[in-house]
Write a structure and sequence with these properties.
- Helix 4 packs parallel to helix 5 (about 110-125) and helix 5 packs parallel to helix 6 (about 145-150).
- About 35% of the residues lie in helices and about 15% in strands.
- It has an 8-stranded mixed sheet. Strands 3-4 form a two-stranded parallel ribbon.
- Strand 8 (about 195-200), helix 9 (about 205-220) and strand 9 (about 225-230) form a beta-alpha-beta unit.
- With about 280 residues, the protein is an alpha/beta fold.
- The model has no long low-confidence stretch (mean pLDDT about 90).
- It is globular, with a radius of gyration of 18 Å.
- It has one domain (about 10-279): TIM Barrel (Alpha-Beta Barrel), CATH 3.20.20.
- It has helices at about 15-25, 35, 40-45, 80-90, 110-125, 145-150, 165-170, 175-190, 205-220, 245-260; strands spanning about 30, 55, 60, 70, 95-100, 130-135, 155, 195-200, 225-230, 260-265.
- The chain contains 10 helices and 10 strands.
């Protein structure tokens, strides 16, 4: 594994806020992508009394080569999870909620209705709470995206994750064009803001990144995130390159050139990092 540059290192924070978040998650039997994906920003977010909820279990039906979440046969859905999410939102006092999930290709709708039920439970608390969801592609199963549109989150996020030429290596069970189609379907059939993101450092060129940003712009994507890929373990894809801070500034200029006006681009940027700022 390549040596991690200093600007990618984060201090460990363990204060009353982080302990409170962990306590609430444990008592409500909830998972977070912060833990599951070993997010480098976990302690910062917990310290701000927030977390990104990971629904539908903590094992995935796919085997993306960059992701720390385990691949295994999933458990049945917890029917009480949407209610527990809403209870945690209330206890944490969240005004902006981000919910993501493992991929559940085993479910008839890919888990779309479970997402919708989480949205409905949160909306029972207050119509003023903003909700962002980060979903898989649902394999474009019939009606899945319409279920999401009807539930009407404030922001719909589906990550492209990497460039076209690397996609099959990084996401062998995914499909680059299908991911673009998901974003375009939401944009064409609703007024929901759409969002997508990718990692850099998997072997792509600046031209590859530019082509992917052009593809995202063509779907009507409203919000973009770009961050540095960090190898979770020796069993995952190796980092081909750590982008410099100057190169991340170049990526910002590239996004502007292509016309993507709302973005977060930086070494430690992740999909839900400071999500409220771009909503």
């Amino acid at each position: 594994m390549r040596r991690l540059p200093d600007y990618l290192k984060r201090n460990i924070i363990d204060d009353e806020n982080t302990k409170n978040v962990r306590r609430i998650l444990k008592t409500k039997h909830l998972n977070t992508v912060c833990d599951g994906a070993r997010c480098p920003n976990k302690n910062e977010c917990y310290g701000h009394n927030t977390a990104t909820f990971l629904i539908m279990g903590n094992v995935c039906t796919r085997n993306c080569k960059y992701c720390n979440i385990s691949t295994a046969k999933p458990e049945p859905l917890d029917k009480d999870e949407p209610k527990h999410i809403a209870e945690a939102v209330k206890e944490l006092g969240l005004k902006y909620v981000v919910i993501t999930s493992v991929t559940r290709d085993d479910l008839i709708d890919g888990g779309a209705e479970h997402f919708a039920e989480c949205i409905r439970e949160i909306r029972k608390l207050s119509s003023d709470i903003k909700i962002e969801i980060l979903t898989p592609d649902f394999l474009r199963k019939d009606g899945a995206l319409d279920i999401i549109i009807e539930a009407h989150p404030d922001v719909f996020n589906h990550n492209i994750e990497t460039t076209r030429n690397i996609f099959k290596t990084a996401r062998p069970l995914g499909n680059y064009n299908r991911s673009l189609e998901v974003l375009k379907y939401i944009k064409d059939n609703s007024d929901i803001k759409t969002k997508s993101g990718l990692m850099v450092g998997l072997g792509e060129t600046m031209e590859d990144i530019e082509n992917t940003l052009v593809d995202l712009k063509s779907t009507g994507c409203d919000i973009l995130t770009i961050g540095q890929y960090i190898q979770p373990s020796k069993q995952h894809l190796e980092v081909s390159k750590y982008y410099t801070l100057e190169e991340f500034e170049d990526l910002k200029k590239l996004a502007e050139k292509i016309g993507l006006k709302k973005y977060q681009i930086g070494p430690l940027v992740r999909s839900s990092y400071n999500a409220m700022l771009l909503s």
